[in-house]
Write a structure and sequence with these properties.
This protein is an alpha+beta fold. It has 4 helices and 7 strands; from the N terminus they run ββαβααβαβββ. Helix content is 35%, strand content 28%. It has a 4-stranded mixed sheet with strand order 4-7-6-5. Strands 2-1-3 form a 3-stranded antiparallel sheet. A hairpin with a 5-residue loop joins strand 6 and strand 7.
């Protein structure tokens, strides 16, 4: 099966960030990426448009670099708190998701984070202290600490 070029509309784990031009298997593009709106088929005109958007995004990122560093420092110095129901044995009902962590970080820092910016190192199903990797922008990531508290 031949490969096919697509332009990513959003970040796809293991593939790239929004605006990246990647080559994937034709079936992967046809059956998953394009129908879900994660990518659009590559064309010369679309590539020119994406390059212009990428150039504008890079200029904006340079201007916001100091702010991104400040957000990173704030994330690494703050500890978020997540309370979930737990059973008698201390095990949580359900698991902590990146969306819950993003919401807790918003509460702790005041900055908005999308669930796709938060990566957990493993499944969080018990109370305790954990660390999540938060992508502040394309070049800056922060290790955010959070506590999971089980409540009856």
């Amino acid at each position: 099966m031949p490969n096919r070029k697509v332009i990513l509309n959003q970040e796809v784990d293991g593939l790239g960030a929004a605006g990246d031009i990647v080559e994937v298997r034709a079936g992967y593009a046809r059956n998953l990426l394009v129908p879900r709106g994660w990518a659009t088929p590559w064309t010369v005109g679309a590539e020119k448009q994406i390059l212009a958007l990428r150039k504008a995004r890079q200029a904006k990122q340079i201007a916001d670099h100091d702010e991104a560093v400040a957000v990173k420092d704030q994330l690494e110095s703050t500890k978020a708190r997540i309370e979930l129901k737990a059973g008698k044995n201390g095990r949580l009902f359900g698991a902590v998701t990146p969306a819950l962590v993003a919401e807790a970080l918003h509460t702790a820092t005041g900055h908005d984070f999308d669930r796709r910016q938060v990566a957990l190192t493993g499944h969080v199903k018990t109370p305790g202290s954990y660390t999540a990797v938060v992508r502040v922008n394309d070049s800056i990531t922060a290790n955010a600490k959070f506590d999971v508290i089980g409540k009856a």
